[in-house]
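dumping this here so i dont lose it
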């Protein structure tokens, strides 16, 4: 059996790796080929192009890279068609994957899309293109199924793999001890975070995200640390390139002492008292770790104006969308100002009653998402493929 998979994000690499591992129980001799990251390749996946070549966002960046992206998509289509693949799974990246999925479906290849595009939030007309392009949609969030059911698109809610990964009740003391060991190993000096107040800061995983929101974060944190000089600020960078970018930004703020490290974002968040972050999967991770948070985000003005005019939901962060109420503060575009961030951080770090309430709410949301996602997704795919491939 030949299974094509294409994902273009680090978060998709994690999802797809779990799915590959689960599918191998039913299809132990399957070939998995396409575009993926290190976690997928560790499961035996063959990546034809680097995952990073698809990691574009917004409206302007994809346009600049359009010739390259179209070339990659054309080469993938020919590969999957000419080598007679049985199944294609597009993991997120809908603007890239849906066009590929539609053409492959016309060739008789079964199509699964894993992670619903945000059709419930904006560009709802895409549902018709999705219906023509896929045989099955796998959703991570419980409220996403309704729009597919209304349009007679086969859909299965599988839950979120991260909800399976994180314990419902985190061990904060163990997380502090682990972070102390990690930082000590990196800096080659003894570190003990027990009893200290820690703020995790994650300004994004993409170059363009950090370009827009990073300087705002550093201004806000410089102001806030003047109010709380003992506050420990730890910034985990996704990879070497983002580490260099953050290092360059922080060099312009010598008055702001920050511990900048490569990787370990989950460990840093788990040990923190609160998280300052750009909107995205990180907000979900912070929620699953039961951490108070401030969500702030900025895009280039043109992209923001276009996208905001099409939004059909009142929130942008996953905790608020899941709860359908403002659990965590969202400071978006012009609202993402240093003074507003300082005020929101103070509330998140210094309100024990609010922390306890959030913990309870986050625990309930965690239970909703904890559905053994990779195995549930694999079972839905096996049912789609039928006895011929058993």
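and the seq i came up w/
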């Amino acid at each position: 059996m030949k299974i094509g998979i294409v994902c273009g994000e680090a978060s998709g690499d994690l999802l797809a790796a779990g799915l590959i591992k689960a599918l191998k129980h039913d299809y132990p001799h399957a070939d998995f080929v396409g575009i993926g990251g290190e976690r997928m390749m560790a499961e035996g996946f063959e990546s034809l192009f680097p995952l990073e070549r698809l990691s574009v966002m917004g409206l302007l960046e994809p346009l600049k890279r359009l010739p390259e992206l179209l070339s990659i998509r054309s080469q993938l289509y020919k590969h999957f068609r000419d080598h007679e693949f049985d199944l294609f799974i597009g993991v997120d990246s809908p603007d890239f994957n849906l066009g590929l999925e539609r053409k492959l479906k016309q060739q008789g290849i079964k199509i699964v899309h894993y992670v619903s595009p945000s059709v419930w939030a904006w560009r709802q007309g895409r549902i018709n293109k999705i219906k023509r392009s896929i045989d099955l949609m796998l959703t991570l969030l419980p409220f996403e199924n309704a729009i597919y059911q209304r349009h007679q698109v086969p859909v299965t809610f599988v839950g979120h793999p991260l909800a399976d990964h994180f314990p419902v009740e985190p061990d904060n003391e163990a997380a502090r001890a682990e972070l102390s060991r990690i930082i000590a190993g990196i800096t080659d000096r003894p570190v003990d975070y027990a009893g200290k107040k820690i703020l995790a800061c994650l300004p994004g995983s993409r170059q363009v995200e950090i370009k827009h929101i990073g300087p705002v974060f550093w201004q806000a944190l410089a102001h806030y640390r003047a109010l709380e000089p003992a506050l420990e600020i730890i910034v985990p960078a996704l990879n070497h390139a983002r580490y260099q970018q953050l290092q360059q930004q922080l060099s312009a703020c010598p008055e702001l002492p920050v511990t900048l490290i490569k990787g370990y974002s989950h460990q840093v968040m788990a040990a923190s008292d609160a998280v300052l972050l750009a909107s995205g999967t990180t907000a979900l991770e912070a929620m699953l770790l039961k951490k108070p948070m401030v969500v702030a985000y900025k895009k280039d003005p043109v992209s923001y104006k276009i996208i905001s005019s099409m939004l059909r939901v009142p929130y942008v962060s996953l905790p608020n969308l899941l709860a359908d109420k403002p659990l965590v503060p969202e400071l978006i575009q012009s609202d993402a100002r240093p003074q507003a961030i300082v005020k929101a951080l103070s509330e998140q770090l210094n309100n024990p009653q609010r922390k306890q309430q959030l913990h309870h709410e986050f625990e309930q949301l965690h239970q909703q998402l904890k559905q053994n996602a990779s195995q549930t997704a694999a079972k839905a795919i096996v049912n789609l493929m039928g006895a011929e491939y058993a």
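The chain has 18 helices and 13 strands.
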